[in-house]
Automatic annotation (TrEMBL):
Stored InterPro entries: AmpC-like, Beta-lactam-related, Beta-lactam/transpept-like
Residue ranges of every copy of the Beta-lactamase-related domain listed in the record: 10-314
Coiled coil: none
Superkingdom of the organism of origin: Bacteria
Pfam families per the UniProt record, alphabetical: Beta-lactamase
Signal peptide limits: none
UniProt-recorded name of the protein: Beta-lactamase family protein
Length: 329
């Protein structure tokens, strides 16, 4: 058993203890090790939750490179005529703001928070998030800060970004991601539709699938470990059709604090010197029955993907694996 295989297996064992099933992938240069538990493997389909946001933001970068839109184009320009879009201090919401969570919009669409508090275990809580509902919620929204001023993580904003880009392209969100990302990378298992393996709540009980409807850009994609690995490797060694977009996404940053920045879609943190000082670019995700994370370090050319069919965070063991790979690079 080589070191990469041993490290991956150890992470699977750690995660499998409290989950129905999990798949972990370790990337080191041109070598990839994928292992799973519970009968799950490289081609098993999962709900990947908020990792979807990185796909949405990369689609924005690609359309920007193509001149179809621009990072600083106002959101209102990509929505139906007459849509009310809030402003604050004279600042409009732009596509850059949506992709970097600096729009000032709330985490959830306007009016959803109370329902989430009163019914925390309701199945498929985003099932009503149609275009009409989201645009109505946008019209009622009050911004928590002037756009561009402050980081405020927003599913609402990311979903609106996906909706706006699809509207500009004249496609569904699913067709947009297929055209701009999945087809160029050869991702055969990535879409908003189709079956997945059964998801489970944290207590192990089965959970119904989530359908995010027109909020899909925030967390509606389903994918396989093999596809997410391909997506991460495209960021480690940018080339081909997506290379300019990947570079633009990496270069566009908003600083959250001294150690953390948000790029287009991705988060990026610099470890303390005592921890090696390495860069970790990442995004995690979670739905009612799944949890996920994708992370990489472009400097050492390593990465990690962990997808679980149980709503329990996989972050800590995945970051431990990434640090081990960085140390051994």
């Amino acid at each position: 058993m080589n070191d990469l295989e041993q490290l991956t297996r150890a992470t699977v064992t750690k995660l499998a203890a409290k989950r129905n099933g999990v798949v972990v992938a370790a990337i080191a240069g041109d070598t990839v090790e994928i292992q799973g538990s519970g009968g799950l493997g490289a081609d098993t389909r999962f709900e990947i939750g908020s990792i979807t946001k990185v796909f949405t933001a990369l689609a924005l970068a690609k359309l920007t490179v193509a001149g179809v839109t621009s990072l600083d184009e106002p959101l209102r320009d990509l929505l139906p005529a007459g849509t009310t879009v809030p402003t604050r201090d004279g600042q409009e919401i732009t596509l850059r703001h949506l992709a970097t969570h600096t729009s000032g919009l709330s985490r959830l669409p306007t009016g959803m928070l109370l329902g989430a508090i009163l019914r925390p275990r309701q199945p498929d809580p985003y099932a009503h998030c149609t275009r009409e509902y989201l645009l109505g919620a946008l019209g009622r929204a009050k911004l928590g800060a002037a756009p561009g001023r402050r980081f405020r993580y927003s599913n609402f904003g990311a979903g609106l970004l996906g909706l706006a880009l699809a509207n500009r392209a004249g496609l569904s969100y699913d067709a947009l991601i297929s055209r701009e990302i999945s087809t160029p990378l050869g991702l055969l298992g990535t879409s908003t539709g189709g079956d997945t393996t059964q998801g489970h709540r944290a207590n192990g009980r089965p959970e119904a699938p989530w359908q995010l409807v027109d909020l899909a850009g925030a967390g509606g994609l389903r994918s396989t470990p093999a596809d997410v690995v391909t997506f991460v490797r495209a960021h480690l060694s940018p080339g081909g059709e997506l290379a300019p977009a990947i570079r633009l996404a990496a270069e566009t940053e908003h600083r959250v604090n001294p150690f953390l920045t948000v790029r287009l879609g991705w988060m990026a943190q610099r470890l303390h010197a005592k921890q090696g000082g390495h860069l970790q670019v990442f995004h995690n995700g979670g739905t009612g029955g799944f949890s996920s994370i994708a992370a990489y370090d472009p400097d050492t050319n390593v990465g990690v993907v962990a997808l679980s069919d149980t709503q329990r965070s996989v972050d800590a063991p995945a970051f431990e694996l990434l640090k081990a790979l960085q140390s051994g690079a």
